Amino acid sequence: MTPTLPRTVRAVDTAQLLDLAQEATMHGFSQRLPVDWLKEHLAAEATHYLFPTLVQRLTHRPEVLLQWRCQQLLTFSTGEQIWGLLDVLPGTFDKLPETLDAASKKDIVSRIERAVTVGEWVERMAADAGS
């Protein structure tokens, strides 16, 4: 039986987010950013947010564990908030503390919907560096 996807947002600090990215790497999940790249770009003292949006089960790769595909709102060292994706084990997500009230969650989801994607941010940085 597939676990029920939670309709919530969880806040994590940079160290927790790096641990989640490392776990995704260890399990070979497809939606993740390289840990070293995140270390380079994330604001060290920031709060980041995860919003599960999809139950991901790879029927063609049964060795890959079921995961929740989360939209993430990342705060970069530039101060910008950037939209990305991260696959997280359900049990790992469940262990993250519930710290946000309903209004904060609604605001974060709204910010996720308006945020620049990681890919767009990388393209913009490359274009700015080439100028």
Protein described:
This protein is an alpha+beta fold. The protein has five helices and five strands, in the order E-H-H-E-E-E-H-H-E-H. The chain has a five-stranded mixed sheet with strand order 1-2-3-4-5. It starts with 9 loop residues before the first strand and ends with a helix.
Q: What are the defining features of this structure?
A:
single chain, 131 residues, alpha+beta, five-stranded mixed beta sheet, 5 helices, 5 strands, globular
Give a concise summary.
The chain has five helices and five strands, in the order βααβββααβα. By secondary structure, it is α+β, with helices and mostly antiparallel strands.
Mean pLDDT: 92
Q: Would you identify the regions where 5 or more consecutive residues have pLDDT less than 50? A: none
Number of strands: 5
End-to-end separation: 53 Å
Class by SSE composition: alpha+beta
User: Helicity level, as a percent range?
Assistant: 40-55%
Number of helices: 5
Biggest sheet features: 5 strands, mixed
Overall geometry comes to: globular
- Rg on CA atoms, Å: 15 Å
Oligomer: single chain
How do the helices and strands follow one another from N- to C-terminus? EHHEEEHHEH
Question: Strand-residue fraction?
Answer: 25-35%
Lateral arrangement of strands in the main beta sheet: 1-2-3-4-5
Topology (SSEs and partners):
Layout: E1 10-13, H1 14-27, H2 35-41, E2 47-56, E3 67-75, E4 81-88, H3 90-95, H4 102-114, E5 116-117, H5 118-130
Parallel strand pairs: 4-5
Antiparallel strand pairs: 1-2, 2-3, 3-4
